[in-house]
Amino acid sequence: MTEIIDGNAVAAEIRAGLADGIATLADAGVTPCLATVLMSDDPASQTYVSMKHSDCEEVGIEARDYEIDPEAPADDLYATIDDLNADPSVHGILVQMPLPDHVDEREVLRRIDPAKDVDGFHPENVGRLVAGHPRFKPCTPHGIQKLLAAADVETEGADVVVVGRSNIVGKPMANLLIQKSKLGNATVTVCHSRTTDLAAKTRAADVVVAAAGVPEMIDGEMLSEGCVVVDVGINRVEADTEKGYELVGDVDFESAKEKASAITPVPGGVGPMTRAMLLWNTVKAAGDAEAVDVELP
Ligand SMILES: Nc1nc2c(c(=O)[nH]1)N[C@@H](CN(C=O)c1ccc(C(=O)N[C@@H](CCC(=O)O)C(=O)O)cc1)CN2
Asked: Where does NADP(+) bind (predicted)?
């Protein structure tokens, strides 16, 4: 029987587990505060930001919403980041990706105060992660580690294939999985668009993390019997539904389910965990900034 790993349930546990830390902060007179900055009219990005605000409200994190016209000069975004960096009541800053083409993403990430960089994308935080002493783990790969742990998937000694080399998922995922830690100690292969014979690599894996951004590119034929499949893709494909689209992952769920011992669905798998770990990082950022020792789940 294939286990369907329920990301909504694990994310709800993480949110509940943050209550103690948030109460400790409240005792010290601190309300954790996350500022989100959206410079896009992409409906998916708008949905994600609005879900992040609802999550914050649920757990008692203050969320501030900054929206910048996608046609505005990049300087408008930089000025907003500078203001948020300087505001001591803001503990976490999240600039929703992707950004418009005329904005230099690297400059944006460099500009965010690394102590408020709850995405973990600032070069200083990337360096700390690679060196094995992360401050903020990027939300999606951190969420995947928590999902695997919740499903009792042992990464120690496992052969993991990560398909995709993005800065948001693929690279930090590989780095976290090779670390000497309870949720690491794996042997990792990172595959990408220039990988030869991808199917041979995925078939040799105990765990496949699909994060290529290509709808249903991994199917059952590419997997070995009993492997674990983590589907990071959240692709909107046109469909005859009320919304005009449906969400599909990077994995062909039906055929993959026939082979896998455990698999994450889309929606309801990795996505909710990305949001839960953003809350986690925000509570950590508030604790660090206010010198309050918070317990994290
Ligand atoms: N600054 C950042 N930008 C982006 C990140 C990120 O971690 N930081 N990751 C992705 C998108 N992302 C977060 O922003 C994200 C994607 C999906 C979900 C989610 O909850 N998905 C739901 C379905 C939602 C829907 O109905 O469309 C699910 O999978 O169940 C949360 C966050 C790119 N940008």
From this structure: 164-166, 234
Query: What is the strand order of the sheet 207-210 is part of?
Result: 3-4, 262-263, 228-231, 207-210, 159-163, 187-191
Return the best residue to mutate from 4, 36, 48, 230 for the ligand 1 pocket (most ligand atoms within 8 A of CB): 48
What CATH code is assigned to 139-272? 3.40.50.720
Find out whether the beta carbon of 36 lies less than 6 Å from any atom of ligand 1. Answer: no
Ligand 1 centroid to residue 234 C-alpha, Å:
8
**pTM for the model:** 0.98
Q: What is the domain partition of the chain in residue ranges?
A: 27-115, 139-272
What CATH superfamily is the domain 27-115?
Answer: Leucine Dehydrogenase, chain A, domain 1 (3.40.50.10860)
**pLDDT confidence bin for 53, thresholds 50/70/90:** very high
8 A C-beta contact, residue 252 and residue 223: no
Which ligand 1 atom lies nearest to the CA of residue 270? 29
SS3 63: strand
Q: Please write the tens of the pLDDT for every residue from 120-177.
A: 999 999 999 999 999 999 999 999 999 999 999 999 999 999 999 999 999 999 999 9
Please name the amino acid found at residue 4: I
What is the distance in A from the centroid of ligand 1 to the CA of 3?
23
| Secondary structure (3-state) at 257 | helix
Does this chain's domain 27-115 share its CATH topology with 139-272?
A: yes
| Stretch (H or E) spanning 263 | strand 262-263
Residue 145 annotated among the catalytic residues of the structure: no
- 213 Cβ inside 6 Å of ligand 1: no
- Band the pLDDT of 69: cuts 50, 70, 90: very high
Q: Has 116 been annotated as catalytic?
A: no
| Residue located nearest, by CA, to atom 18 of ligand 1 | 271
**Ligand 1 centre distance from Cα of residue 261 (Å):** 25
- Quote the ipTM score: 0.99
CA–CA gap between residue 57 and residue 231 (Å, rounded):
27
